[in-house]
Specification:
Length: about 260
Amino acid sequence: MKPQGKCAGAGTLVVPRRILLAVLLSSLLTPYSLLVTSPANAEPLVIAASPSMKAPVETLAHAFEGTHPDVKVRVYYDTGLELRWTIAGMENKVGEKTYFIGTGPIHLIAPGGDELLTRLEQKYYVLPGTRRPYAAVPLALVVPVTLVEAPASFEELGKGAKYRIAIADPVLTELGRQTQEVFEALGIVNYVKGRLDVASDARGVLDHLLYGQADVGIIFGPDAVKEQERIRVVATAGKPTFKPTIHSMAMERFCPNRALC
């Protein structure tokens, strides 16, 4: 199903925005119904997520609350490693469990990468078979909003082009590595080599772009969405040139209401 909504190309969500979380959560197990509809008594649905996934997770949460007024989605953010430690400590505790945010146990886990979910499945901290994709993160070609003449595709960065290109370090960062893969897939590595402005990370790419050190920059879609008042997306890398990073969430083993999830 094609993504819908503003800036869908920069931070692609897997299903239409109004039913994103409704489809995701109801597909994990079965539909549910609740008698209590008062917002004050709304049943909490707790998601433990990585800060890097804040935009898609909160979009999903708002969509789900819109279609399920008797549920309040609460999101707890922490790094992947901290999430792993928190979940392990909570599940391995002997006796009555003390939940880490004071609102009840975790329902769903949405880390910043599927590698962590695989590790959690191996430890049986999340239920096998409950993993569902909820966001696909593409590479975005961006320019300052003031730039009039801009390339319309990654291919236009190649032979004959004069655009200075800000990229993240391909040796030290995942963003840079994926950028390099796109250049190689398009066969433009030798054409862009003398025009690359290498930054330490995505923030550095934006700084170099906005301070005039480069004409275009390449960052992940969600980062482009955050800066849409200062930059605009002119192209996204797609198949077969580039395979977007898929992010999934899964049900925590002690999810208190599996029907809700």
